[in-house]
Amino acid sequence: MNFDFTEEQLMIQETAREFAKSEIAPTAIERDIKAEFPTEIVKKMGELGFLGIMVDPKYGGAGMDTISYVLAMIEISKVDASLGVIMSVNNSLVCTGLQKYGSDYIKENYLTKLAVGKKLGAFALSEPEAGSDATKQHTTADRDGDYFVLNGMKNWITNGTTADYYIVIATTDKEKGHHGITAFLVEKDTPGFTYGKKEDKLGIRSSDTCSLSFENCRVPAKNIVWGEGKGFNFSMNILNGGRIGIAAQAVGIAEGSLDASIKYSKERKAFGTVISNFQAIQFKLADMAVKVAAAKVMTLSAAALKDKGEIFYKEAAMAKLFSSKISVECALEAIQIHGGYGYVREYQVERYLRDSKITEIYEGTSEIQKMVIARALLK
Ligand code: CAA
């Protein structure tokens, strides 16, 4: 596969790199400690077009491709994976979902605001008893005239308390199994819609994760995304693209771990010389670099397939499975190279380890990715 990036792709990569260095890096440690949502940074990211990268300019987006999105995601996540997931959910799950499957009404009223970052989106599929087994949706939506009445609970929702618009998945016809599940666009402050406390997480701590609760929450029928009974297929389709975003996030964390390790090993002295002179360190750096390069190629290949309009779900699952695995491995090696300094906050690599773990869990655990890959191989 040939990755001769276009000028536009290189431009967004460079813009993201500069933005991450100047605007995100200075407060990353503090926000992680305080579990503080980066409101101002997210606002600036919206102004720069990072929240609607793949959205048609007609709806306020940057009109770029998935490769551009991956390059930007890597640069942002390299510095702060919390910003990576905030950006990823808005781009790959919410904006892409609405652009591809939303009605004109939904696109004009909601997508345009999400794409320019005036509003933030969340995607609510998971429930206390429907995580990996996502067809078991207990949240219900019963028709009442021109409205549907939602009741139930969602959890682990990224951008949970900070979003303005939520794509909520609910069962509209229990008899029909996963073909009786529907996606709704629900606005914040709709009566009957409340959220729980922010989760106190191991990593990606400055992103905002919480549960949502619906109690007789009335949502207009015109806010259905795609069509009644199509909500599960909608979720699966957009999660395929979402997995490319999370793979890119994982690559960014792994590359951040490698860069920090190269820098540290060239400065740190032991036994009369810098530790980069020792083969023990060199071999670790070489192994990390190979893993980062392979994960990047897999992620960009999946993005290229998607951009060509080809079937990409197996490649997206493979990219996420591999990138998330090497992300954890590279972060662990970075700590080992840093020794005691790797175990304290100041040197950031302990944050990389905490942040990397979630990439093996959300948007489908590694075990789910293996299921998806194996089913594709055996069909
Ligand atoms: N792409 C497109 N369609 C898919 C698909 C895929 N990757 N995987 C399944 N489907 C479709 C099937 O084709 C089938 O459709 P039809 O019946 O219309 O033909 C339908 O989904 C049901 O599929 P299965 O019979 O295979 O269902 P299953 O129950 O055996 O398995 C599953 C489904 C793949 C395990 C699915 O439940 C799954 O992906 N689980 C993981 C859920 C997940 O990723 N959650 C992430 C939450 S969001 C999040 O994390 C965001 C965040 O905060 C960062």
Can you lay out the helices and strands and say which pair or pack?
Layout: H1 7-24, H2 28-34, H3 39-47, H4 66-79, H5 81-101, H6 104-115, E1 121-124, E2 140-144, E3 147-158, E4 165-171, E5 181-187, E6 193-195, E7 209-220, E8 224-225, H7 231-267, E9 269-270, E10 273-274, H8 279-307, H9 313-338, H10 349-357, H11 366-378
Parallel strand pairs: 1-4
Antiparallel strand pairs: 2-3, 3-7, 4-5, 5-8, 6-7, 9-10
Helix pairs in contact: 1-4, 4-5, 4-7, 4-8, 5-6, 5-7, 7-8, 7-9, 7-10, 8-9, 9-10, 9-11
The chain binds acetoacetyl-coenzyme A.
Outline:
With 379 residues, this protein is of the alpha+beta class.
Q: How would you describe this protein?
A:
The chain is of the alpha+beta class and 379 residues long. It folds into three domains: 7-120, Butyryl-Coa Dehydrogenase, subunit A, domain 1, CATH 1.10.540; 122-231, Butyryl-CoA Dehydrogenase, subunit A, domain 2; 233-378, Butyryl-CoA Dehydrogenase, subunit A, domain 3, CATH 1.20.140.10. The protein has eleven helices and ten strands. The chain has a four-stranded mixed beta sheet with strand order 1-4-5-8. Helix 7 packs antiparallel against helix 8 (279-307), helix 7 packs parallel to helix 9 and helix 9 runs antiparallel to helix 11. The longest helix is centred in the middle third of the chain and has 37 residues, at 231-267. The two termini are 26 Å apart. 53% of the residues are buried. The structure holds acetoacetyl-coenzyme A (CAA). Acetoacetyl-coenzyme A (CAA) binds at residues 85, 89, 123, 125-126, 132, 134-135, 158, 178, 232-233, 236-237, 239-240, 313, 362-364, 368, 371-372.
